[in-house]
Fold:
Amino acid sequence: MPAGLAAELSELIADPNRVLTARPVLERLSHDFYWYSPVLRRQLADKNGEVAVQPVSVAEVLAVLRFAGEHETPVTARGAGTGNYGQCVPLQGGIVLDLSLMDKLEEITPDGVAVCQPGVRLAVLETEARKQGWELRMYPSTLVKATVGGFLAGGIGSVTHGGLRDFDNVRAFEVVTMEEVPRVVLHEGAAVHEILHAWGTNGVLTRIWFALAPAVEWTQLTAAFDTYEHAFRFTRAIAEGTEWTKRLATVFEWPIPSFFTPVKQVVREGKSLALLMIATTQAETLRSAAEAAGGEVTFTGEFTGPRTQPLLSDYTWNHTTLWAMKADPAFTYLQCGFSPDNCEEQFRLLRARYGDEILFHIEFMKNGDSMVIPGAIPIVRFTTEERLNEMIAYCREIGVFVANPHVNYLEDSGRFRADNIQLLAKQKYDPRGLLNPGKMISFRKEVATR
Ligand SMILES: Cc1cc2nc3c(=O)[nH]c(=O)nc-3n(C[C@H](O)[C@H](O)[C@H](O)COP(=O)(O)OP(=O)(O)OC[C@H]3O[C@@H](n4cnc5c(N)ncnc54)[C@H](O)[C@@H]3O)c2cc1C
Structure:
């Protein structure tokens, strides 16, 4: 970017202190948790934006996008930078659009919809919602840091309320386009799917209507089982059983629990661990069920919000991988969906072929057909990229879905839509390909698909 452009940008932003050019700041704002992947680590470490801008209003977002368009400069949106795929790493320099200061929670409607700006932290929303009798439908382990906008562009789902695409979880949002004259477009109902899970490649979310659920009093419970199979079957029964009100249903194969050093008290040497967040009214029944299934209940404790101590969700989802990598930096991970019909056979095949090169970590999730599936973030011992790719190919061969976290583009990350509506939206809203370029590889500037 020519040197004068950053100075020109400052004139578009009410406070020039929100236009950042210091190298260490740019390096920080240009990266996320891509380093979980040894493959992405090599590819992305030296990718940086040339200037970062922190807008506080839609008018400023519009001005930055108009300016970027005029100068053919890429723009990469950023929330809190907790993505794992290098989603917010600018591959072609340009402007990092840090939306974390657009963090106003406008209202929670009487029917439980949060209306907010994209930079609102999920934990702030959870805390405010609980004061009004509501809570987040999805409970990502990064809720303390992650923003609503980043979650909608790149997050996953939940065991009770499904994924972002399901059950009207995302009601609507406003999107700023990168057309010749950028504008704000309201997407409601089915139209949200054009932009959801698109990593900021086809529009910038500036106002969001996000559905909440009635608040529940939750209890965290862990139970240790002699074998992974026992822990899995027990947790699966709870996850699938409609009589159970749950928020998290997680299984860790031994030795994964041994990595959770701050909560040693919930771990039993050599045993696999089930971790559940269950309605407090059902906690005692769950304890009995765990014991009847041969488990030892090692912890129960009330969940009182994101400041709960210990907060056991800090060990779930991709925090599990973080603890594993702390214990041994040679670990990395995969993001999988096992088949509800023959997952145990899939576990057996993977174990037979890879031994303890793969360690099972299950996060049960509901899909849009209300079927609970064993989602998984297995820990993988990394040796070579070839071996990793061979493992991914074998998973797919035996019917295990893999959202490949070792690539940096949407098409292989598991959330690209086969009906191409995200691509069509990019052609419509970003015909010059300036939004987060390189992350939607099927996009071609010249070619229209219909
Ligand atoms: C330790 C750890 C644990 C994790 N656990 C979970 C988990 O439990 N569940 C889960 O779903 N994910 C999890 N993740 C992944 C990540 O936290 C989520 O995807 C998170 O929601 C991203 O939010 P963010 O604000 O950090 O977004 P960022 O990482 O900043 O951005 C994510 C993507 O969204 C785009 N983006 C950001 N803001 C906007 C906007 N306003 N408009 C358009 N595009 C935008 C960015 O360009 C980028 O492509 C985990 C990651 C880590 C490192």
Remarks:
- The first strand starts at residue 19 and ends at 20.
- The two ends are 34 Å apart (CA to CA).
- The pocket of flavin-adenine dinucleotide is lined by residues 32-33, 76-84, 87-88, 99, 118, 140-142, 146-147, 149-151, 153-156, 199-200, 204-205, 317-319, 322, 436 (CB under 6 Å).
